[in-house]
TrEMBL record:
Superkingdom, taxonomy of origin: Bacteria
Alphabetized UniProt keyword annotations: Signal
Protein's UniProt keywords contain Signal: yes
InterPro entries: Solute-binding_3/MltF_N
Protein name as catalogued: Amino acid ABC transporter substrate-binding protein, PAAT family
Signal peptide feature range: 1-23
Record has Signal as a keyword: yes
Pfam family membership, one: SBP_bac_3
Native source organism of the sequence: Kordiimonas lacus
Domain Solute-binding protein family 3/N-terminal: start-end pairs: 31-263
Length: 271
């Protein structure tokens, strides 16, 4: 090897050591901005304003294992979806995987399940003839729903088939408002997540006034959602690997037990 060739080799090695690592194989190439809103027990701010909840803890564990830093930003759900679509934030949590959302967003592998149910005033449920979602629609019941939420294929099909249905729907971005409407007889039925609804009713001291209808609206997997404009697929793959490794561990089960009574975990099976 000539003197010049040896010098070139040494310089090349030094340069390669000084360059930043390739993004390929890395977990995250930047700090992610993740939007959330107050939705107990999944993600909310405690009395000190600190973000916490079941999904927040699962995200901290899996993102940390994937080598991804993140910052949290409070934002209503419908606005969150628009921000993900246009790339003004990187992602969010607690998302249902829908074909229209897949046009602009990546979805992680599922990290838990979600059960959407119907809540009715207890005295009316006992005498109700409602046996299905279709009965709610055909009976012209007043329905309270959250803006931008997904309540399953059956309700989506009924909503699409009957444009007049929206006249019987009251929509709000606030979950607590839904149950205030129900207790005060402004709506006849509220569509909502099972555990979020029970948590709100407990806080309102209204568990004796409202009951859960036995018909399930939707039972499906829940995912982290990311903007295709700002989050590379390599980041998604790293987070997916972390989720797969984390599920079934004692730490994962302990987090579930912290927020969901063990006897009710049949509604949220992931192991």
């Amino acid at each position: 090897m000539t003197k010049h060739a040896a010098l070139f080799l040494v310089v090349s090695i030094l340069l390669s050591l000084s360059l930043p690592a390739s993004a390929e194989g890395a977990g995250c190439t930047k700090k992610l901005t993740i939007a959330f809103f107050d939705w107990q027990p999944y993600h909310y701010r405690d009395e000190n304003g600190t973000p916490t909840g079941l999904d927040i803890e699962l995200m901290r564990a899996t993102f940390g294992a994937a080598g991804c830093e993140f910052e949290l930003k409070v934002m209503p759900w419908k606005r969150t979806l628009l921000a993900i679509k246009f790339g003004t934030i990187d992602g969010s949590l607690g998302a249902s995987r829908l074909s229209e959302r897949e046009q602009y967003a990546w979805f992680s592998r599922p990290y838990r399940r979600e059960t959407m149910v119907m809540f009715m005033r207890r005295d009316e449920l006992e005498k109700s003839k409602v046996m299905s979602v279709a009965d709610v629609v055909s009976g012209k019941h007043r329905i309270g729903v959250l803006l931008g939420s997904w309540y399953g294929d059956e309700f989506a099909a009924l909503y699409k088939a009957d444009p007049k249905l929206r006249k019987h729907m009251l929509q709000t971005p606030e979950y607590e408002v839904l149950f205030t409407w129900l207790v005060k007889d402004r709506v006849d039925v509220v569509f909502n997540d099972l555990f979020n609804g029970l948590h709100i009713l407990k806080g309102m001291n209204a568990l004796d006034q409202v009951a859960v209808h036995p018909v399930t609206l939707n039972d499906d997997y829940i995912h982290f959602i990311f903007s295709k404009l700002t989050v590379p697929r390599t980041t998604l793959e790293a987070i997916d690997e972390a989720i797969a490794a984390f599920q079934g561990t004692e730490e994962y089960t302990a987090i579930l037990h912290k927020y969901v009574p063990p006897e009710q975990l049949t509604f949220m099976p992931m192991q």
